[in-house]
């Protein structure tokens, strides 16, 4: 077993590290987006207009572009075939807004071409969502019932699907950003230095996914440290 120091559980450090990484990544992406949301694109196109143009140029006519409230709540819904753009993107003409809109179009293009990591993430999502909700109740119930190994291990196993989902998300997001930068450069929607700015915005956004994956891995590692060797104690 791991040592305790004056009642302090040292594995909490893993949770703290994960939280710091997530908060730091969120601060970076928000700061970067705010900075470049003040840079108006030379084309004068809004995020919604850029998204529609990208989708049409890719031969995608069955995906609608809709507005959704919030800040950076943008996402592509493959089930409904809807690309939803937030307040800070939909009607804005900044380079940052167009970059985010193009990134979401990248997901629509992935869907059209049956991009394998996206298909895998979609397949994993129901189990990962269920696992993230039920894992801790199972683990806590296992502890209450005199350290029931079956329930605890079941909880850890289900939580591992949430971790797997985070890991599969990384190539999906990185690929969508690469597609976005390439499309914006080749289509002429953005010009010159504007493409470089988009890379910075999407690069900052990618940090949130990396931090999320790291935090999930650290959480799983903590569970394994806490309960992985119980049956040998």
TrEMBL record:
Keyword line: Membrane, Transmembrane, Transmembrane helix
Coiled coil spans: none
Matches recorded under Pfam families: Zn_peptidase_2 (PF04298)
Origin: domain of life: Bacteria
Membrane-spanning parts: 12-33, 123-145, 151-172, 206-227
Name the UniProt record assigns to this protein: Neutral zinc metallopeptidase
Lineage: Bacteria, Bacillati, Bacillota, Clostridia, Lachnospirales
């Amino acid at each position: 077993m791991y040592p305790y120091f004056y009642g302090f559980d040292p594995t909490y450090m893993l949770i703290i590290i994960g939280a710091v990484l997530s908060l730091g990544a969120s601060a970076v992406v928000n700061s970067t987006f705010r900075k470049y949301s003040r840079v108006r694109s030379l084309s004068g196109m809004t995020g919604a207009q850029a998204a529609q143009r990208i989708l049409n140029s890719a031969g995608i006519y069955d995906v609608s572009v809709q507005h959704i409230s919030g800040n950076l709540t943008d996402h592509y819904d493959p089930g409904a075939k809807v690309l939803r753009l937030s307040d800070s993107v939909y009607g804005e003409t900044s380079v940052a807004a167009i970059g985010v809109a193009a990134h979401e179009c990248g997901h629509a293009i992935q869907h059209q071409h049956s991009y394998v990591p996206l298909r895998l993430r979609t397949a994993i999502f129901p189990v990962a969502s269920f696992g993230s909700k039920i894992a801790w109740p199972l683990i806590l119930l296992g502890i209450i019932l005199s350290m029931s190994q079956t329930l605890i291990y079941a909880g850890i196993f289900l939580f591992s699907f949430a971790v797997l989902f985070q890991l599969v998300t990384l190539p999906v997001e990185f690929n969508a950003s690469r597609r976005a930068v390439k499309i914006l450069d080749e289509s002429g929607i953005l010009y010159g230095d504007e493409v470089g700015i988009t890379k910075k915005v999407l690069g900052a956004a990618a940090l949130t996914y990396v931090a999320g994956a790291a935090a999930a891995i650290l959480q799983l590692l903590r569970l394994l440290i806490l309960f992985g060797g119980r049956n040998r104690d």
